[in-house]
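Final report, section 2: Outcomes. Of the targets proposed, Translation initiation factor 1A is the one most frequently requested by collaborating groups, and we therefore present its record in full.
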Amino acid sequence: MSNGDGDGRNDLRMPDDDEVFAEVVEMLGANRVKVRCADGKQRTARIPGRMQKRVWIREDDIVLVEPWDWQDEKADISWRYEKSEAEQLREEGHLQ
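The predicted structure is given below as tokens.
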């Protein structure tokens, strides 16, 4: 997945217009986690069924969430970054 210039940088999935970076703060159980979003809000995020058995989400993981239109304190997780990808996002200034 390297872009070919030899610096080890990967092209990472970036947020769409309706997505925001978030850090998992607490596991709540029942496929829900508490996340701290890059826009400064804490939300309860839902782990969708397509991710439940394939992607393990833990505290301190960096994820992409899609806040709900009708209830801003809730969101759906759409992507989880690996640790190395999260470090790359921090180095490039996308995360605090």
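Confidence is low (pLDDT under 50) at residues 1-6.
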